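User:
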Amino acid sequence: MELPTEGRKPVKVSIVYCASCGYEPQTLELTSVLMKTFLYDLSAIELIPWADGAFDVVVDGELVHSMYRDGGFPEHETVINAVRARLGA
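Assistant: Predicted structure:
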């Protein structure tokens, strides 16, 4: 767990997932990891049910993983590193 740091702007994470594909477990697992890792540094985690096999993760407006583009589900560390990079910006 990372403690809040003065001057850091909280980060918003959006997860678009295919509800009809049954991707809720992966979505909730990633959400849990992010909440435990960035307890105070997230402004929001937005979960957006979608269709067509989607699983996209957006960090402060930047697409960091797309199932269509990258294949499969993202490694948790990939998303964590993207959030850390935004916090350091």
